[in-house]
Write a structure and sequence with these properties.
The chain is of the alpha/beta class. It has 7 helices and 7 strands, in the order βαβαβαβαβαβααβ. The protein has a 7-stranded parallel β-sheet with strand order 3-2-1-4-5-6-7, sandwiched between helices. It binds nicotinamide-adenine-dinucleotide. Residues 12-14, 18-20, 39, 43, 63-65, 90-93, 117, 143-145, 188, 190-191, 193-196 line the site of nicotinamide-adenine-dinucleotide (NAD).
């Protein structure tokens, strides 16, 4: 088993459709011990039973918009675990109004919120996790999307947030690399989840992707989970600062 004896904190399970949940299940199957975070009471109600189904009772609050909550998360985690082998950041948010219409109409508040929750949160979480990760030469993984690289209808400010996230992965890599800690991003094809439901015209994106991607199908939770295990395990020991596409090859297309 690739993750036997390894401890991973998963931030971003909202329900059993979440990408982070697919990753959690595969990590568990590979022997990992898991902890989970949730941003509010209503998400906690869904996350706690899911975590328990994988034998995890370490389920801690953390809204990543609050430095105090991030501090509290790692203070509490440090009480239970003396090190961390993996940190999964599977978090993004933009207000629904920003995910439709013209990008030029993005509001200052909408821009700030999307970039804060979807990109800065990786930096903030990784900084607090650094001592725990360094003690075990752990790995950080975040989830991104092709909208960081190319213009896609309605993705708007989230594309800018993902570009900042991917660049943050590259800037974090040398900071953490001195301690043998790796940081990578996984760029997943479109998948039906709570977050993607907020993107106007998302069904059309799914349909288009399945028709045009070299593999002629949509990306699955299993597709993403397999690569996530690779990026969090020793199999990818020489890989850092990368964005790995798990999208059936869609990103290679010109036309
Ligand atoms: P999801 O809604 O299941 O997950 C998003 C998570 O972000 C939720 O668990 C939510 O609680 C969390 N979150 C939002 N605001 C937060 C805050 N302030 N503090 C803490 N947590 C907060 O949807 P998903 O599709 O699984 O999204 C996970 C990641 O995958 C996101 O970064 C998303 O952009 C990315 N992604 C999704 C797709 C897709 O098509 N679904 C494709 C590529 C990348």
């Amino acid at each position: 088993m690739l993750m036997q004896g390894k401890r991973v904190l998963i931030c971003g399970v909202a329900n059993d459709h979440s990408i982070a949940w697919s990753i959690a299940q595969r990590l568990h199957a590979e022997g990992a011990e898991l902890a989970f975070s949730y941003p509010n009471d209503s998400i906690e109600k869904r996350v706690r039973p899911l975590a328990e189904s994988l034998g995890s009772s370490l389920v801690l609050p953390c809204d990543v918009g609050s430095d105090a909550e991030i501090d509290a998360l790692f203070a509490e985690l440090g009480e239970h675990w003396d090190g961390l082998d993996g940190l999964v950041h599977s978090i993004a948010f933009a207000s629904r109004d920003e995910l439709k219409g013209r990008f030029i109409d993005t509001t200052r508040d909408g821009f700030r919120l999307a970039l804060d929750v979807s990109a800065y949160s990786l930096v903030a979480l990784t900084r607090r996790a650094e001592p725990l990760l360094a003690s075990r030469r752990g790995a950080v993984l975040t989830l991104t999307y092709f909208g960081a690289e190319k213009v896609l209808p309605n993705y708007n400010v989230m594309g800018i947030a993902k570009a900042a996230l991917e660049s943050s992965v590259r800037y974090l890599a040398p900071d953490l690399g001195a301690a043998g800690v790796r940081v990578n991003a996984l760029s997943a094809g479109p998948m039906r989840t709570l977050s993607s439901a907020g993107i106007s015209g998302f069904k059309t994106m799914l349909h288009h992707h399945a028709e045009r991607a070299p593999l002629r199908r949509n990306t699955t939770g299993d597709d993403v989970a397999g690569t996530a295990v690779y990026l969090l395990s020793d199999l990818s020991g020489g890989v850092t600062g990368e964005v790995v596409h798990v999208d059936g090859g869609y990103n290679i297309l010109g036309m």
